[in-house]
Amino acid sequence: QVQVVESGGGSVQPGGSLRLSCSVSGTIFSINGMAWYRQSPGKERELVASITGGGSTNYADSVKGRFTISRGSAVNTMYLQMNSLKPEDAGVYYCYVDSRGSGWEPINYWGKGTPVTVSS
């Protein structure tokens, strides 16, 4: 079965940095793109950053200039470098995988999330 596992979360002070990783295992026909979402208490899950199979990236306005999404050298691996972290960046970060099946049907996967805390 396909597994999507995030890692790298933790607790940092404001202005600190973290690097999140997402590793996908199992049988997937094709991955079109991947993304990072986050959710904090009392808020809806929101898109933080995305990257297409061609390498095009998009970011939420709140993280532009501070976060960088990338695909790793290892197969089915994605990273999110987070710099200059703010308290409002805190939350559980989720890896999202946009894929296609053998018949080109859309198949999406979510990780279980990795928590990020930003406090003094």
Describe this structure in a few short sentences.
The protein has 120 residues and is mostly beta strands. It has strands at 3-7, 11-12, 18-25, 30-39, 46-52, 57-59, 67-71, 77-82, 91-100, 106-110, 114-118.
Give a written overview of the molecule.
The mean pLDDT is 95. This protein has strands at residues 3-7, 11-12, 18-25, 30-39, 46-52, 57-59, 67-71, 77-82, 91-100, 106-110, 114-118. The radius of gyration is 14 Å and the shape is elongated. The N and C termini lie far apart (40 Å). By secondary structure, it is mainly beta. Strands 2, 4, 5, 6, 9, 10 and 11 form a seven-stranded mixed β-sheet that branches.
Describe the secondary structure blueprint for this structure:
Blueprint lengths: L2 E5 L3 E2 L5 E8 L4 E10 L6 E7 L4 E3 L7 E5 L5 E6 L8 E10 L5 E5 L3 E5 L2
Parallel strand pairs: 2-11
Antiparallel strand pairs: 1-3, 3-8, 4-5, 4-9, 5-6, 7-8, 9-10, 9-11
Secondary structural class = mainly beta
Compute the average pLDDT. 95
Poorly predicted ranges: none
* Total DSSP E strands: 11
Please compute the radius of gyration using only Cα atoms. 14 Å
Query: CA-to-CA gap between the ends?
Result: 40 Å
Count of runs of 4 or more consecutive helical residues: 0
Query: Order of SSEs, N→C?
Result: EEEEEEEEEEE
Indicate the proportion of strand residues.
over 45%
Main sheet specs: 7 strands, mixed
Helix content: under 10%
Approximate shape: elongated
